[in-house]
Amino acid sequence: MVPNIHPNHYAATYPTSVVGQTGWHMSDTNCPIGPRSFAAAYRSAQSALTAAEIVMQGAPHAYALCRPPGHHAYGDMAGGSCFLNNSAVAAQALRARHARVAILDIDIHHGNGTQGIFYDRADVLTVSIHRDPAEFYPFHWGHACERGAGVGEGYNLNLPLPPATGDDLYLRSLDAALDRIALYAPTALVVATGLDASEADPYAGASVTTGGFFRIGAAIAALGLPTVYCQEGGYVSEILSENLASFLGGACSSGVLA
Ligand SMILES: [Zn+2]
């Protein structure tokens, strides 16, 4: 199904038509549903849950190679190749053992679904570093002024980046993200691990080098928190796998628990 309408829910009425319902539950056309879509999304979310369980059993960290990704999916709306929000599922699972959980989204696209799911909650801090949405997907969300609502006000932090952000500027934003997380003092962390900030990524959202990914992984690990890494975006390039190895190498090289 690819719907021909995506209402913004302003004064809209929930339809009985499957086409209308599909449009209601999709924010864009980049999440078509086929016969195997649910099985794939379900197993991807189960990968995130397994990683969360491994960490809750005492491992310092675990990496889930989630496919499809999840961070653009809301509680009731798919979008951007995402159907079930794996990082949110992992964070909610961690809440069983941890009073405060933080999610750090380093994908170059804003984690709009994750933000939406936890927007009015204070028990899960959401922080996203991403290309400024004024000119980049998901366009409608990810601005710095979006800080949460109700009891969740102040528990969502967006750090938009200018075009062509390289290692040093990216690491400065990461420092701000990690400072906010440290202030929140969570006892567990989920990292929505996008690799599309790469200088070789076809979306050209930023210019992070392979060595930069090592530094990013090491800086996150230095928080010393039990951490679940959920794979998010990262598009095909000749150095995609090197970037993942570099990031995970950094994550394992530093920090109290590594
Ligand atoms: Zn992305």
Explain the overall architecture:
- With 258 residues, this protein is of the alpha/beta class.
- The chain folds into two domains: 30 residues, no CATH class; 220 residues, Arginase, Chain A, CATH 3.40.800.20.
- 34% of the residues lie in helices and 13% in strands.
- The chain has seven helices and six strands; from the N terminus they run ααβαβαββαβαβα.
- The protein has a six-stranded parallel sheet with strand order 1-6-5-2-3-4, with helices on both faces.
- Strand 5, helix 6 and strand 6 form a beta-alpha-beta unit.
- Helix 2 packs parallel to helix 3, helix 5 packs parallel to helix 6 and helix 6 packs parallel to helix 7.
- The structure holds zinc ion.
- Zinc ion binds next to loops.
Helix and strand run: HHEHEHEEHEHEH
In the CATH hierarchy, what is the superfamily of the largest domain? Histone deacetylase domain
Q: Radius of gyration, rounded?
A: 17 Å
Largest sheet: 6 strands, parallel
Strand fraction band? 5-15%
Secondary structure class reads alpha/beta
The oligomeric status of these chains comes to single chain
User: Which kinds of small molecule does this entry bind, naming each only once?
Assistant: zinc ion
Helical residue percent band: 25-40%
CATH class designation of the largest domain: Alpha Beta
- Please report the number of helical segments: 7
Question: Mean pLDDT score, rounded?
Answer: 95
Q: Catalogue the unreliable spans.
A: none
Order of adjacent strands in the largest pleated sheet? 1-6-5-2-3-4
Task: Tell me the distance between the termini.
Answer: 44 Å
Family: Belongs to the histone deacetylase family.
InterPro entries: HDACs, His_deacetylse_dom, His_deacetylse_dom_sf, Ureohydrolase_dom_sf
Organism: Roseovarius nubinhibens (strain ATCC BAA-591 / DSM 15170 / ISM)
GO biological process, one term: epigenetic regulation of gene expression
